[in-house]
Amino acid sequence: MQLRKTLTTGLFAAACLVAVYPDAALASQPSTHFSLFVPPNNSNNGRHSTLTVTAIADNTAVTITDTADDGDSDDSTSATLSKGQSIVVRVRDGAVNDGAGGIWDGDNFIVDADKPVTAMLSTRSEWQHDWVPAENNTMRGQEFFVWTPRPNWDIDVVAYEDDTVVEIYDITSTAQESSGTTSVTLPGEKILEQTLSEGTDLLVTLNKSGTNITEAGHSYRVVASKPATMMYGSFERRSRDGGGQVPSEDGTPMGSHFYFAAPAERWAQHEREIRIVAGDAATDVTLRGWTGSGWTDIDTQSLGAYGHLDYTGRDNDLVRAYKFFEVEATNPVSVFEGNWLETGSYGTSDVWSWVAALDSVGASDVGQEFVAYVGPPGLENNAVGVAGQFSHLYVTSFA
Question: What's the whole-model pTM score?
Answer without folding.
Answer: 0.89
